[in-house]
């Protein structure tokens, strides 16, 4: 017994370590990390070279649920309110209504391709209806893909918050199918009541749990290393209590993380480091367990149908759902195209595929296998193409600054400052003699291994280490002083424009200077106000407005989305109908309708033309 236990520990720990080292492939080649981890699980599983037999679906769902709760808590913890405000409305519409529309649209091809009933088709659509947060966060944050702020924020918030809706739909449909025959009216009532209960209780539990975490950490004195453990323990309690009360525990932990991550909290730096490592472990364990659970020898008999459904999801259901949900928000065609394509399916879809098996549905194993193949297809087709597509669509944003070498050290207690260490980069503003602001307090300089005070050091130079006390919200401002300059390329100038405009200048003056037209009612607006009005909603860096023959580009915007700098491009790089002949925005649709009505009125008011008489025999 002891030998078997030790062997299990050896195999489990070995797989985790092996997964960590093979993840270097993902960092080096841009491969989807989830694909690699699932591949390791499949290779180690019953049909692979490892030959490990693991068929306990209840244990797999239990482990996966805990891991997903940890991941969602970290997603909320890492979502800044600035980001949330920037894209909350479109992202939450995608995370709720978008999942429903995707599942409903995908149910049609599933019904005809798999030959299952409509409810089972809708169930499979719900299982694969959500975007995977782990895959999206890895590609955008760890993978270093810098895209326009509003697009990035929409993707991150949607992927982090759409799992509760997919889980709700899946669990409710499994319950309805397990109950047998049920009338349409009863089904509608079941869905409505379950939705209100799960989302209402989940939201309330998340708000309470987030406040409890903050108050506990800030008011109770503990050993330093215990604070992260208390936080994750309270988060898991929040998940369990919300679920026991009939609510969505996954929504509860995400909301709790969102609150805790945006309020000053003791041990925040240590908590972020601990949570980052724990989230990596949760992702690796979940992916390995789901890979071990699969039986690849069963895939060939259903592979063709599953791939066809995956293509229907990638090319039809997801794009149409995204376009319909984003119509009111003024996204450009390139942005909608990118959001539609980056609908990576991942571990959550495989985890939800276990529920039909647990519910003892007749086609439960088939639905699980199809969901697994759909995930693999999504990662293979979409996961490798995100960076090239973003570059092709012109959504890659040049970096604000070059590399910065910084280490944050949190002070004990509830201090309002942090101790930050910078290594001065060559050609950085500080190395060129720029003064450190008064609100930053340099306390120590380390030069060639020797420590000295700031007044002893004289002029700072490249390679010096500077220890500075600074409020946490000012750290990003200091980064600009200590970083190496970003390399400016022709592509950067094309992206941000060759000229800079004063955002306070009246747009009418700019229009007269550069030969484009604006309405008289807008002529007195400043360039910044005009951009905010035309773009709609919160404005982010990289947003652009085409006004032939020029293009206005937001170069910089602050945390409150005030436009600080505007670029002007003389050769607009806006969406080309020849390149993207679909995903028309609401403004383009409204303009097309107005033009059609105008032409119709012109034809109706035009005087009738006399028709010439054809010469006949009498003439």
Automatic annotation (TrEMBL):
InterPro entries: Cation/H_exchanger_TM, Na+/solute_symporter_sf, Transptr-assoc_dom. Keywords: Antiport, Cell membrane, Ion transport, Membrane, Transmembrane, Transmembrane helix, Transport. The keyword Transmembrane applies. Residues 492-572 form the Transporter-associated domain. Residues 610-619 have a biased composition (Basic and acidic residues). The chain crosses the membrane at residues 6-27, 34-54, 60-79, 91-115, 121-144, 165-184, 190-214, 226-245, 251-271, 278-296, 302-326, 338-358, 370-390. This is Potassium/proton antiporter. It comes from Aquibaculum arenosum. The lineage of its organism: Bacteria, Pseudomonadati, Pseudomonadota, Alphaproteobacteria, Rhodospirillales.
